[in-house]
Amino acid sequence: ETGVTQSPTHLIKTRGQQVTLRCSSQSGHNTVSWYQQALGQGPQFIFQYYREEENGRGNFPPRFSGLQFPNYSSELNVNALELDDSALYLCASRVGGGAYTQYFGPGTRLTVL
Amino acid sequence: KQEVTQIPAALSVPEGENLVLNCSFTDSAIYNLQWFRQDPGKGLTSLLLIQSSQREQTSGRLNASLDKSSGRSTLYIAASQPGDSATYLCAVSAGAAGNKLTFGGGTRVLVKP
User: Fold this and answer.
1) d(Cα B89, Cα B61) in Å, to the nearest integer?
2) Rounded to a whole number, what is the distance in Å from the CA of B101 to chain A's nearest CA?
3) Which long-range contacts does A8-13 make (Cβ < 8 Å, 24+ apart)?
4) Which of A36, A51, B13, B78 falls 20 to 30 Å from A7 in CA-CA distance?
5) What is the pLDDT of residue B75?
6) Is B84 left (phi over 0), alpha (psi -120 to 50) or beta?
7) pLDDT of amino acid A111
8) Residues in chain B where the model's pLDDT stays below 50
């Protein structure tokens, strides 16, 4: 049990739609990262937020955006969904900088039809 | 660009055997390296975190070594049990800000009773 929760567990959308995924971190975890994991592959870094500001981004287009809130919750928004966006989306939180362990949530499985 | 490789992609051993999982990375300028466990369709559980200044970390039956100069890490699991069946992922962090983890593709382990 990592103390990081994600909702919903599963989601089915059609191509072109928009989706919002949610993550709730442990109290005091002021850094949250989002990852996309395609089937059979390792997770790919989407972006990171620190104290409600984006401070790192991977190789993902602008239609992937996020928000972090003062209550240690965060969102991942994806616009204009494509079939290749089908994946497990993971959020991870930690206290402060990279010396600390990241704690992952159980993920949201997104299927785009 | 950092690349992380895990070989083999899959491994099957009888119960009681020791497991040896390999991870290699192309850029030795890492901040730390983490090993994770992932059960099917689930999130990631952190097993061990090794800072770049350390050579190894141990937790129970798990021992992870790090050789930065050669770009390698090895995870040893002693006296394997069927409950150790899972996918094991290694990930490296490039900087103190820990902006992102770069993951390998994972090794899928099956421990047969």
Assistant:
1) 17
2) 7
3) A8/A108, A9/A106, A9/A108, A9/A109, A10/A108, A10/A109, A10/A111, A11/A108, A11/A109, A11/A110, A11/A111, A12/A110, A12/A111, A12/A112, A12/A113, A13/A81, A13/A110, A13/A111, A13/A112, A13/A113
4) A51
5) 97
6) alpha
7) 97
8) none
Q: Is the pLDDT of residue A44 over 70?
A: yes
pLDDT score, position B73: 97
Q: Name the residue of chain A whose CA is nearest to B30's CA.
A: A98
Residue-level pLDDT at B48: 94
- Indicate which of B38, B89, B100, B108 best probes the interface with A, i.e. most A CBs within 10 Å of its own CB: B100
| CB atoms closer than 10 angstroms to residue B14 | 9
Q: What pLDDT shows up at residue A101?
A: 76
